[in-house]
Amino acid sequence: MKVEFWYEFASTYSYPAAMRVERAAAEAGVDLVWRPFLLGPIFGAQGWNDSPFNIYPAKGKYMWRDMARICAATGLTLKTPLARFPQNGLKAARLALLGQDEAWGPAFTRRVYLANFAEQKDISDEAVLTGILAALGLDAAALLVRSNEPANKDRLKTQTASAIAKGIFGAPSFVVGEELFWGNDRLEAALDWARR
Q: 2-195 belongs to which homologous superfamily?
C-alpha cells in the first residue's frame, strides 16, 4: 500500500517531514505519493484568516521552540522567514503540482522548504523559484508559464478539495487508504500502517 504525503509550503512541520519522508518510505519499502495542497481554504472554512500559530501566540512560541529541537536533532537549519510567516506558497505549490509525478518534484519541494526555513528567502518571489528550478537543470521559464495556466490552477484547487474530502485539516498529513495521520511525528505510524 502507498502513503500519500500531503504538504503545504507555509507549514513549518512539513519542512522536516519533506526532508525525511522519501528516505523513510524507501527504507520501509512503501510507495510514496507527493501531494502539495493549500491550507488557506481549510483555515478559512474554520474562520481563520491567519496561521493558528499567529492567532494563538502561546502556540506559536511553542511551535518555534519545538521546531528548533526537531531541526537540531535531525541536522536541519532553521531560521524564521524574513518576508513574513506564514509565507505565501501558492506559486511554489503550482510548480510542485507539475512535478508531483515527475522525478524532479521531490527535489524541488525540498529546495523550496530550505529556501523558506533555512535560507530566509521569499518563496513567493518568482526569481527565487526560477533559481531553484534552474539549479535542478529545468526549463524554469516554461514551467512558470505552465504553472500559471488555468488548467493547472484548477488542478491545485481540485487537489485541495480532495484534501478536504479526505478529512485533512493540517500539514503535514499522511494518508494510507482511508487512514489519516497528521503531523511530522506520525510519519512512522503511517508507514507501519501501510506495511501492514
A: Glutaredoxin (3.40.30.10)
